[in-house]
Amino acid sequence: MVLPRFDLMGSAFGATLFGSLVAAATLSVNPVVAIAQEVPVHMVADEVGYDEEFGLYVARGHVEAQRGDKIIMADTLTYNERTKTVTASGNVALLMPNGDTLFGNYVDVTEDFNDGIVQGFRALLSDDSRMAAASAQRIGGRQMILKNAVYTPCLPCKTDPSRQPLWQVKARDVVQDSDEQTITYHNAWMEMFGVPVFWTPYFQHPEPGVARMSGLLEPRFSVSSGRAGVQYAQPYFFTLGTDKDVTVTPILRVDGGPDPAAGVGDVEYRQRFRDGALRVEGSGTYEDRLGNEDRSIVKNNEFRGHFEGDGLFEINRDWRWGFNSKLTTDKTYLSQYHFGSPDWLENTLWAEGFFGRSYFDARAYGFQTTDKDFDSDNAPMVLPTISYNFVSEPSQYGAIWGINANVMNIVREEERDSLRFSVGPSWTLPYTSSMGDIYELKLAFQSDLYVVNDVDPDSDSVDPGGAGDFDGVSGRFFPEASLKWRYPFVRPGESITQIFQPIAQLVLAPDCCNTGEIPNEDSRTFEWDDTKVFDTDRFAGLDRVDSGSRFNYGVQWTGYVADGGYADVFLGQSVRFWEDGKEVRRGSGIDEDLSDLVGRVTLVPADWLDLNYRFRLDADDFDMKRQDLGIVAGPDEFRANIHYIQLENDVSIDKEEQISGGFRLELGEYWAVGAQAYYDIRDDDFIGFNSLLEYQDECFGLTLNTSYAPEDDDEEDSAGDFTAMIQFRFTNLGNIGSNF
Predict the structure, then answer these.
(1) 286 burial class (0-12, 13-18, 19+ CB within 10 angstroms)?
(2) Is 418 in contact with 455 (CB distance < 8 Å)?
(3) Which residues contact 52 (CB under 8 A, 6 or more apart)?
(4) 527 with 540: CB under 8 angstroms?
(5) Which of 94, 303, 332, 673 is the most exposed, having the fewest neighbouring CB atoms within 10 Å of its CB?
């Protein structure tokens, strides 16, 4: 029957998994207390009564009570008015608003909820993980003690629910301290398939919901056949408040060299500000090391270390600034201790501003190399580069004007220096005729002023050439006009919609302005492909202008399939006139009056196929100068890929021809394997091989990555023919892994 409303005598013991079930016993059927409570309880039971002699309020038979978003169910619920205790017995269950369901055989708690006990504690959590204990005891309102506890996130076996889970954690005692916000395990061990694999007399971690707390983090292991040797790193995390922390990591190494054993200390500091964030890290040690250029030299007992950091800070709604940095004492330290070792380390200080349709950027760069074939002393320093860009609102006729301004100062200790001032206004008018063809008229003007030292007028080399080097001031004025036309022809259909459009562009510019007295710092690379055909400036950077006049043309066809697939084909070329091509390097593809023919083919008919092909053909005999083919095919369960690239002798690149291929195969619901191999066709040489073995279910993950590469002439500190990385993932506990 439905009874009158009753009130809950209190709230749950805590937000933790261990305290929630005891709160299930805090329902009362005391009508006196109900008057003082604001949140009512809706209760259904087979019978309810009051024993005046013993002071007992009792609800029996399919008791179900709800207060707010919490529901408790039990066979019997009792409140003892004299002892001020609440008991619930028989199939006690509490449904929590976060999705957790908590169970107990018997619950006995005091009225103030500071002390109590739950017999036969069990919990099914919202993430399907499970917990159980012989008893759960609440002491003093701050501690919860579980006896003979067990926890696992692994689901029961579908065919044999009684089978041991893949892994579970057991402990004789688990103590949750709400004041300290910690959970402590005594005499705890982990089992896998019912077999103990790890034991610890003591283990502690923060309560669920605690975001940050001081303590040990996951250790890191690595094993290398090179000079890195065998390493063990054990981070310790210190919280210094809600906005900052420090991680201290001692790293121990044995084997490798040149010292047979060593230790490194690493410290990382992080802090969040109201308008920014900061991270700095440094490490150091004293030990023997190899020479930077000549690695047959051993230098004894030298300081070795590194520094890195980054920051981002908001000044106001329009301005922000930041930095990133990475420095090291020598060329082998970073790779030997696995701090990440790119060939060039970049250090940047920058500021930028956003103002409507304009943008300001200022940066200073410094570089350090870890490559033994380069000298950091002659690396360039950019002090600074400043850029300003503005694009106007479209005018009445759709015209847009803009301006790009730049200042860049590059200095070196012994080689050439340059200071550049550049301003480039532009005006663009788009137009669509009544017939549907689309035009774009663009006028641009670039003016540059250079102050330079040690510039070789006959070479792009940064090395000073001697008496013929130029020191002084040079500049240029470079106007350019272009008109682009395209006409999309659209043919809709039931199964495919096709778009065919011829494209043409006329670019007019003088044959001038790339003088040898202007150093080439930021336009040193060039690649002629389908993306460059209709660029008015095909060079990167500002130091080289795309001089001379030319006519560009091409055709593009695109088809869109009704079910989502598409195909795209493009073919383009350029014809140059009024320019002799002396500023374009031989073999670039645009060094002749008639450029090489470039194109692309993209085919994505469905989710199971993605094909991309780019090519470059010689304009005279249609010899293949470059081709790049990438194919990814197959369903999600089996994806295979192949990548082929051919580079003809051009610019400064020797002829190359390489191919790689691989696959990823999913074996059932949890397992996956994969592999990738690389081969140099030109040199008939095996480049390398990678493989993957992966397992992931709801509670456990395993990843094994392996790679093989032939021995290099210059063995790096962490290099070797064979490397492997294995990682174990335990849901809700963390990861542990090792490099080999």
Answers:
(1) middle
(2) yes
(3) none
(4) no
(5) 303
203 pLDDT band, cuts 50/70/90, is confident
Query: What would the two tokens of residue 120 be?
Result: 């036969």
Paired residues of 551 in beta bridges: 506, 575
d(CA 108, CA 67): 19
448-457, 477-486, 575-584: range with highest mean pLDDT: 477-486
Candidates 3.20.20.80, 1.20.140.10, 2.60.450.10, 3.50.7.10; CATH matching 6-211:
2.60.450.10
Cα–Cα distance, 364 to 324 (Å, whole number): 11
Structure tokens given for 108 = 């006995």
The overall pTM is greater than 0.90: no
Query: Is the Cβ–Cβ distance between 68 and 23 less than 8 Å?
Result: no
Classified as helix, coil or strand, 334 is helix
Q: Where are the domains of the chain?
A: 6-211, 213-372, 390-596
Q: Are 453 and 473 in contact (CB under 8 A)?
A: no
Mean pLDDT over each residue of the chain, to the nearest integer: 85
β-pair type (220-223, 734-739) = parallel
What tokens appear for 389 in the block?
Answer: 């860009």
234-283 pLDDT, tens digit per residue, is: 999 999 998 999 999 999 999 877 888 889 999 999 999 999 999 999 99
First to last CA, the chain: 68
DSSP-assigned letters across all residues of 623-646: -EEEEEEEEEES-TTEEEEEEEEE
pLDDT at 10: 29
Q: What is the mean pLDDT of residues 55-63?
A: 88
Residues 6+ apart with CB under 8 A from 290: 227, 258, 296, 297, 298, 299, 330, 332
Q: What is the pLDDT of residue 684?
A: 86
Q: Hey, what amino acid is at 360?
A: F
pLDDT band per the 50, 70, 90 thresholds, residue 17:
very low
- Residues 559-610 have pLDDT tens digits of 999 888 999 999 999 999 866 545 566 778 888 889 999 999 999 999 899 9
Q: How many residues make up the chain in this entry?
A: 740
Asked whether the beta carbons of 514 and 585 are under 8 A apart, the reply is no
Spell out the SS3 assignment of 254-319.
ECCCCCCEEEEEEEEEEEEECCEEEEEEEEEEEEEEECCCCCCCEEEEEEEEEEEEEEEEECCCCE
Kindly report, residue by residue over 522-544, the tens digit of the pLDDT. 988 888 999 999 999 998 899 99
Distances (CA, A) of 69 to 72, 79, 195, 677: 10, 22, 40, 57
Return all residues near 38 (Cβ < 8 A) that are at least 6 apart.
Answer: none
How far is the C-alpha of 119 from the C-alpha of 425, rounded, in Å?
81
Distance, CA of 595 to CA of 572 (rounded, Å): 9
**Residue 88 or 68, more confident:** 88
Pairing mode of beta strands 344-355, 319-328? antiparallel
> What are the tokens at 216?
């040990």
Say how many C-beta atoms besides its own lie within 10 A of residue 317's C-beta.
7
User: How many angstroms from the chain centroid is the CA of residue 44?
Assistant: 53
- Confirm if 537 and 495 have CB atoms less than 8 A apart: no
DSSP alpha helices (H): ranges in 320-396?
A: 333-336
If one counts every other C-beta atom within 10 angstroms of the C-beta of residue 732, the result is 13
